Amino acid sequence: MSVVFYYREADRIWQAEGKIILSGGGERMTEKKQKIAAVISVIVFMILLLPIVYLTGVNRASGDDYGYGLYTRMAWMRTHSLVEVFKGMCQTVKEFYGGWQGTWFSIAVFTLQPEVFHDKAYVIVAVLMLFLWIASTAYLFREVLCRKLGFSGWSCLLIAVWFLIISIEFIPNTRSSIYWFNGCAHYMLPFAMCQVLTVWLLRYGESYRWRTFVGILIFMTLLGGSNYQAALFGLIAAFYACAWGLLFRKDRRILLLGIPMLTELVGLVVSMKSPGNLVRGGNDFGFSAARAFQTIGSCFVHAVTDIGVYVAERPLALVGLLFLFLLFLLLLRQRQERLAIPHRLILGIMLFCLYSAMQAPELYAGVTVSKGVPNTNYLIFLLTAAFILLMAADCLVACLKKRERAGASQKGFWSVIVAGLFVCAVLGLLNRGGIKRCASYEALVYITSGQAADFKEQMELQTRLLEDDRVTDAVIPGINDRQGPLMHMPVTKNKDAYTNQVTGRFYGKQSVVSIERPVWMERYAAEYGIEAK
After folding, report:
1. What's the pLDDT tens digit per position in 256-283?
2. E strands along 50-170, which residues?
3. Of 19, 43, 50, which Cα lies nearest the Cα of 161?
4. From CA 5, how far away is CA 185, in angstroms rounded?
5. What sign results for the dihedral spanned by CA atoms 174, 105, 377, 340?
6. pTM (whole model) above 0.70
């Protein structure tokens, strides 16, 4: 509930500054209702998170986690020195930069997967990623809604919580957004950085403080070595800030943002010039002007197509956006003045272009991408759509108020709200099957079915066997990769398979293979003092 107290204090400060403008009369009642709605929403949000967070105790590293964490684990187990761990990190970046991929910042983070330091430490992954996701979103919404647009702290909390519910529950892939360290480090960490970067760019355009500039410089430089979507987001956001400052504020100091843009471009070029990219992407990987122009045009088509996919595959997420729109209407109704948003049409076009640009890396590469890419596309869509809906709600409220001043009844506003709620209810009922695709529902089914407990028991046994120093050629019982929302890359029967190789190296084994679980129990269980089941 610390978030609630944070927003309560923010609400007190903003009201003291006189930035909250409510319609006359029932100001206290309106404020009280906002607080009640916000607190109830936080409670609902926390209840929905319970099954998701519960699985953090079941979650374990596998596959790529072992491959990227090899040298850092060896350094930590040998010396327990962070200096040696850093050397192992550099060695890993160098090896993968030459042999697999160039995203140097992501690789550096990969090497710090929690099981490098303790075999039980992977339990922090889901909590850590949810914290980064929630905190960066709350930070962005507080900046835009409270500091820029004058919403109260409780109103901001209410909006942010329902936005997060839509984001988390209907994310295309929970493995790469919550549970799998490598996927989260490559996509969710940069996404959180992009949200924080957006806040700093907004603030720098007003204050030009050096500490804000330094933060922008560091984040943008690092984004140059992360996934290409995040790097593109950083460049576009900084370009938007520069263009806005020059065209509408006539302040040339904003041109200093060219420095972090340059450092990010340098980092991005270093990433793209990696010899490992040719290994992973093939000999056709590289820059092509013709392909770049073709990609730009295709981005807008695919952006619209993706919206159609969301309507078809995640209709409840669109119902959630409609509900958010109605929430905007109710909150804006309380204000006497319109939102101070200049050049709305231009801003709306800029936001749609930003969302469309997220399609570019996948289209340009022309290869199969990881599940983190559609996650990022979805999250940027929600962010841009929410702000466009906010501007649309402000225009609708202004029109309805204008009609009321001309003598029309207030029933027009409430007719819109009732009609909207009716549409939400109907669409929700028609697409109620979509609840089964919610992150909380999937986690709950995985838990209640007994699969989570079974996976935890199997992984604890596997770790015990792999950490047995008496064994150099490990034979372990097989575990399938169908683990609900969790990411698991199982050891196979083939000792030369990638997962077998990296698992063996991580635990210092000459070889690792798996056999059918009943066979293993029959042959090896007694040797390790395990009761055959």
Report:
1. 999 999 999 999 999 888 887 766 655 5
2. none
3. 43
4. 29
5. positive
6. yes
